[in-house]
Amino acid sequence: MYRVSQLAAKFGLSRSTLLYYDQEGLLSPSGRSGAGYRLYSERDLERLAAIVSFRKAGLSIEETRVLLASGEGEQSVLRKRLAVIGDQIRALQAQQHLLARMLRVQSGGELPESVDKETWVEMLRAAGMDDEAMETWHAEFERRAPQAHHSFLLSLGIGEQEAQAIRAWSAAGGKEGAVREG
């Protein structure tokens, strides 16, 4: 059996974190010592290892609670978190490209040229994507992360008006009648 301070040290957590997990119903001690100290079993230790893994993966307390309650884990929670992380990565990449462009403009163009619209299309074609595949890509990007899609388009040097037209077309699923410019 482990006391709260021993368990906390084993996982590099604070004592207050374990008390918080107890308060939230994620990790309750298996028992108490004669002096009233919380005592944790090997099974509690395994549960804490799972909690720590879920939290490192960015899952919220509520998502962690759902996974622990399901026994084997609920794939929908994990898939949802994976999609959120993917969206965040794409948004950060778009921000990175935009900042690089801003720096290049401010420094008089001394930074190397970032990927522009034409280069991006050439790379997609070189990867084997035809027009239909690129249209599907835009539609999926718009569906999953509209703001990141917008930022990405701007990072390619596409103007605001054209970016809005591409997004409207993408949101319509590439259907006829929608404006298409890229």
Low-confidence stretches: 176-182
Extended strand count: 3
| Sheet of most strands | 3 strands, antiparallel
**Averaged pLDDT, please?**
82
Shape: elongated
CA radius of gyration: 24 Å
Strands ordered across the widest β-sheet: 1-3-2
Q: Enumerate how many helices there are, as a single number.
A: 9
Could you spell the SSE succession in H and E letters? EHHEEHHHHHHH
Briefly note the structural class of the backbone: mainly alpha
Helix content: 55-70%
Quick structural gist:
This protein has 182 residues and is mostly helical. The protein has helices at residues 4-11, 15-23, 42-56, 61-69, 75-106, 117-126, 131-144, 146-155, 160-171; strands at residues 2-3, 31-32, 38-40. 65% of the residues lie in helices and 4% in strands.
Structure description:
The chain has 182 residues and is mostly helical. The protein has 2 domains: 2-69, Multidrug-efflux Transporter Regulator, Chain: A, Domain 2 (Orthogonal Bundle), CATH 1.10.1660.10; 82-171, no CATH class. The protein is 65% helix and 4% strand. The chain has 9 helices and 3 strands, in the order βααββααααααα. It has helices spanning 4-11, 15-23, 42-56, 61-69, 75-106, 117-126, 131-144, 146-155, 160-171; strands spanning 2-3, 31-32, 38-40. A 3-stranded antiparallel beta sheet has the order 1-3-2. A hairpin with a 5-residue loop joins β2 (31-32) and β3. α8 (146-155) runs antiparallel to α9. The longest helix has 32 residues, at 75-106. It is elongated. Mean pLDDT is 82; it is low at 176-182.
